[in-house]
Amino acid sequence: MSLLLSQPSTLCFRKPVFVRSSPIHSNNVFSSTSLPQTPPCVIMYVDPCGADPGKLVIRGAGDSTPLEKKLPMELTNEMRPIGSSNGWLTTLKDGVMGLQDIDLNLVASDVDPKRISLPPLVTLPHCQTQIVTNVAMSSSSPEDEDCVVAVKFLGPQLSFFRPAQSNSEWINIRVKNPCFFSSPVMYSKKDDMFRIPGSGGHLIASWDLHKHGEKTKFQRLQFRKIPNMTKDNKRLLDSCCKSEHLVESRTTGETFMVKLYKKTPETWDGIAKKMQTVALMVFKLDDKGSLVYTQDIGDLSIFLTKSEPFCVPSSSFPDMYPNHVNVLDVDETAIVNLAEQKWNC
Q1: DSSP letters of 24-51?
Q2: 74: which strand partners?
Q3: End-to-end CA distance of the chain, in Å?
Q4: Residue ranges per domain, the chain?
């Protein structure tokens, strides 16, 4: 089953964090200009440099050569980067989270970036707050009055915070259903709520802090038009580690669920390597709660990262392919052309 358009050599990233860059002349995800915009960027790793400022190694989408930026020593040596959203790097030190405004413009200096410290994390009973699944933000800046930062921890705990409100406290929610324990959180601008897909993709949990407060809403989903496939391909997918990722296009308003299939290959001497993507499926979520399989997302290009996944129109950026899914993982880069997927051969 040849599902990957290209599979570059495995990359070893250090302290991996993924972010998207700020477009030209705009703090939003997209600007109104029709000119090509700054493409999404990947922070490959944060590299401490001893007594000198550390390095932020960046690779833009479509670029094969990484570029470097300077960072303050305390960010690279003392704080642990745990995620990012909307160009803000999230760090964790001694139970305290911080937000760092990272300008991905290589000409700008980040020796003294803007920083916002959040109150100490509150760990719910039978939960943990040391291992973070990902971070999502409802706004391009935590200084916006209505901005909400969502932190999904491995396990039951999900935490929200409003950085711009002086009397704000952590809102901590225990998600009881185990199918959400390892899933990432995403923000839907269209519906103004945070969402988490359940393992398997049949359930979505959502939180609208403005309308429903801390109450969790659940939506049951049904998969439709699942492609026919050979027995060998079915066995291959059944043997994989599966994960589900929700992503929203802010230009078209469409919501997609990407099912990612990874497998650990073995070397000739039986030693297991790191997991690699062997297949993926894209489903479009309709208004009736159906996930409809598709191999055509038009001009869009989807990016799956260790932080919040995102979707952009490829025609707005140079060197980007339409109807593609880009998997940017800790030790892997994979590019999938949806139109070339074949399941029944």
Answers
A1: TT-SSSS-S--SPPPPPEEEEEEEEETT
A2: none
A3: 7
A4: 1-12+221-345, 17-117
Residue where the block lists tokens 């802090």:
209
Task: Write down the residue that tokens 């960027």 correspond to.
Answer: 41
Phi-psi region of 114 (alpha: psi -120 to 50; beta: other; left: phi over 0): beta
User: If you ran DSSP here, which 8-state letter would residue 340 be given?
Assistant: G
pTM score > 0.85 for this model? no
Taking the C-alpha atoms of residue 245 and residue 260, their distance in angstroms, rounded to an integer, is 8
Q: Give the whole-angstrom CA distance, residue 74 versus residue 51.
A: 10
Cβ neighbours of 187 (radius 10 Å)? 22
Which of 184, 182, 136, 134 has the alpha carbon at shortest distance from 161? 136
Burial (CB count <10 Å: 0-12, 13-18, 19+), residue 178? exposed
Provide mean pLDDT across the span 139-153: 90
Euclidean distance between CA atoms 129 and 112, whole angstroms: 28
Give ∠ CA 108-109-115 in degrees, rounded to 5.
115
CA distance linking residue 137 with residue 59, whole number of Å: 22
pLDDT tens figures, 22-81: 333 333 333 333 334 566 666 655 665 555 556 666 666 666 566 676 666 555 544 555
Q: Tokens for 205, please give them.
A: 């949990």
The 10 Å CB-count burial string (b at 16+, else e) for 276-289 is bbbbbbbbbbeeee
Query: Tens digit of pLDDT for each residue in 97-133?
Result: 888 776 655 444 555 667 888 999 999 999 999 999 9
Kind plus residue range of the DSSP H or E element containing 279:
strand 276-285
Q: How many CA atoms lie within 13 A of 87 on its CB side?
A: 23
Residues 274-331 pLDDT 10s: 788 999 999 999 999 999 999 999 999 998 877 778 888 998 887 788 999 988 776 7
C-alpha distances in angstroms, 168 versus 146, 161, 163, 174? 11, 7, 7, 19
Q: Which residue has the tokens 């040391």?
A: 130
